Amino acid sequence: MAQKYADTQSEIDAFAAEVKEIQEWWQTDRQKHIQRPYTAESIAALRNIGFKIEYPSSVQGRKLWRMLNEHNARGTYDLTFGTTDPLIAKEMPKAGVQTVYVSGALCGLSQAAWPGADHADYPADLVPSVVKRILNTQLFHDQRQTQLRMRYSEEDRKSLENLDYMLPIVADADMGFGTLTGCMKLARSFVEAGVAMIHIDDLALGLKKFTNGEGRSIVSTKEYLDRLTTVRMTFDIMGADTMLLCRCDSDNAEFITSVIDPRDHPYVLGATKKVLSFNQALDDGKQTDKDYLTVKAEWKVAAGLMTFDDAVKSIATEEQFSSYMSEVSDKIVALQGRRAIAKRITGQEVHFDWELPRLPTGQYMWQWCTKAVIDRCVLAAPLGDVTWSRQDKPNKKDMHDFHTSVRKVFPDRLFAFGYTGAYEYTKNGYTQEEVESFPADIAKMGCVWQVQPIWATQGLSLHAKEFAESFKKGGIAWYMRDVAAPARAKMATDKYGKPQARGDYLADAFFDVVAGLDIIEQA
Ligand SMILES: C[C@](O)(C(=O)O)[C@H](CC(=O)O)C(=O)O
């Protein structure tokens, strides 16, 4: 029988060495800001001891970490866009874009066997598979470029392309696909695919709504932190320096799936009047011709919907309310505790019922505010490397308050920011000048990684439509004149006029090497 260890002592020694190595790794510049709720011993016991793999994901994670910290030190940023196409990703370094983003929404629309909206309902290995194809394309072009350059003299090389094709890839891990083991497998697939950073959010699986005028549903703080911890643990088991971007979708969220975590209690909404449940109101509404949103709006008013703290405020004197707040602010006080404090101070039972507003799908109603988002992001920060509060409508004050508040707790915090294509800045209080300087302005707040995630649904669609129209009209003559000729003119060529970036040379080189031919120019 093949034995792993000669004796128990060798196993003890190997385990101790593994623990020491993990502890030392956690002290490196790349890792030392992370606070884990588990020990190096727990991780070592979950590892394949004696079988070390260095993942490309780790190399790219360290590269991205350095890059983003340099931006942070300079107050600058990388501005990138989402793509699922390796051929597009290959063009990005030519313009100085420093990272490639693989969007879940785009993968769902363009890469899934059965397309759909941004529900993260595609197979869990879909986004990792796109990352893998892009990484392989980067490796191919890097290899091709090296081989091509090595065919030329030092002098000739000065005019040849010398691109860093290995842009770190950032990818969308959505809500981690639900279960703890599902999340672990997803994180593992991303590391194996070569991603530099993934983001995990606090959205509820399967409950994203788009057009019915409702906000998002988030999970409890505990569930969100568990997701992040699961990813961190997976990276640690794999020994990977892959980065974790803690994305939080609480901004403008309207529902929460559970009230299990007292940290969420200040923001859960309840009925303060004696009314029928929202579900009952919906059933009754079906008998009339009122639509869902009207029934909801009317029910909220009838129910006197508010947070528990606001309910206290509505019955307390100013003085009573301020002593109540001094007992509950900046502490974790569950609803039960809040009720007892309010009763002691006001002498009254506060009428508040958070069960009545529950949706047919079970969620509770939730009052988002910037403080709620800050609370979550501060709790999540120690588990990850970068923070992103996803905003549909990034208004100036919220942007400022959010970033400065998180930085009060974590002064060097790195942030990400996503530009949603639907948001019109100039119609929402930004001047044209402010839009121009927006990326640079938010970089000063620490937003070092900025992305237009779904460019393909706007930019690529626009180009494709314009191309199709012109091609239909102008035919092949138009194509030769307006597409092929400029594309050829822009294509880098060698001194013999041959295009550099296709890979023909590399294929020839394989033949040459196998045939024993030395094609490297000797300096
Ligand atoms: C980043 C995102 O998760 C994506 O899938 O690309 C989307 C993009 C969008 O809706 O604009 C998101 O931000 O939810």
TrEMBL record:
Gene Ontology BP, a term: carboxylic acid metabolic process
CC cofactor: Mg(2+)
Pfam family of the protein (one): ICL
Domain of life: Eukaryota
Keyword Metal-binding on entry: yes
Cofactor: how bound: Can also use Mn(2+) ion.
Keywords: Lyase, Magnesium, Metal-binding
Binding positions for Mg(2+) per the UniProt entry: D172
Gene3D superfamilies in the record: 1.10.10.850, Phosphoenolpyruvate-binding domains (3.20.20.60)
Catalysed transformations (reactions): (2S,3R)-3-hydroxybutane-1,2,3-tricarboxylate = pyruvate + succinate
Gene Ontology MF terms: isocitrate lyase activity; metal ion binding; methylisocitrate lyase activity
Keyword set includes Metal-binding: yes
Assembly mode: Homotetramer.
Similarity field: Belongs to the isocitrate lyase/PEP mutase superfamily. Isocitrate lyase family.
Name recorded for this polypeptide: Isocitrate lyase
